[in-house]
Amino acid sequence: MSAPWAAISVPLQPEALDDVTMTLHGLVGNAFAVESRPDDDAPWPITARAYVAPGAGQKAARRGVLRALHMLRLAGGGVVGEASETFVGADDYLTSWRAAHAPLRVGRRLVVVPPWLDPPADAAHRIPLVIEAGMAFGTGRHPTTQLALEALETCVARGDRVADVGAGSGILAIAAAKLGAARVTAFEQDPQARPTAEANLRANGAADRVTLVIPSRQRSCQNLRRSWLPTSWPTCTCG
Ligand SMILES: C[S@@+](CC[C@H](N)C(=O)[O-])C[C@H]1O[C@@H](n2cnc3c(N)ncnc32)[C@H](O)[C@@H]1O
């Protein structure tokens, strides 16, 4: 059997979801899953589970995740529970991670689908966004992504020009293009996001309408804006 992955689980209340997911994303990229149990009376309605790959850095990375979750627990005033750790084989990791990335209906017209699945038959009337987030932020599971997708549904008109500042996986840029935008410019400061965003553009047939602006090394949003956006565009907001 291959070396095991560490699976670090933490129970939490909905108020803590944002802090916990942003923290885990910073530490393990998208190698985490969130399970909700909204319908039962469990004291902790959500469990977040971070996975740490086997290898030389596993011990330090596990410690980093456990320490960060402990700090969130201390600061959280009862909305973050105690983390626990188990080890799972690579197949279990992949199976449980993929199970947590099932197709997701967003708003009235969109469905986010991972590349290894077909859109569900009962979502055939929806526009599929084929998204593999890799190490970039933007699986579609985060509430802020979903709110932005719902806003795009209502405000993008055919032929629009759209700027996506802080594109991550490219999910919002792709949604804008598929909702009818003629040109989308997607800015992202993290060079690691490029292969993921490029693959997602290809998977959605959107590469001809979306221009990625991702530096080869980290630069600030204002620098990206200065070099690419017309001065008439509104001040950028990252998110
Ligand atoms: C919360 S994620 C949003 C990703 C995606 N748009 C979504 O809605 O799921 C924010 C993204 O903005 C990027 N970002 C943060 N500051 C930035 C800046 N100054 N310039 C460009 N991108 C930035 C981050 O690297 C990250 O990928």
Structural description of this entry:
There is one protein chain. With 239 residues, the protein is an alpha/beta fold. α1 packs antiparallel against α2 (58-75) and α4 packs parallel to α5. It is built from seven helices and ten strands. It starts with a strand and ends in an 11-residue tail after the last helix. It is globular and about 50 Å long. It has two domains: 5-99, 2-Layer Sandwich (Alpha-Beta Plaits), CATH 3.30.70; 104-228, Rossmann fold, CATH 3.40.50.150. The strands form three sheets. The protein has a four-stranded antiparallel β-sheet with strand order 2-3-1-4. α5 links the parallel β8 and β9.
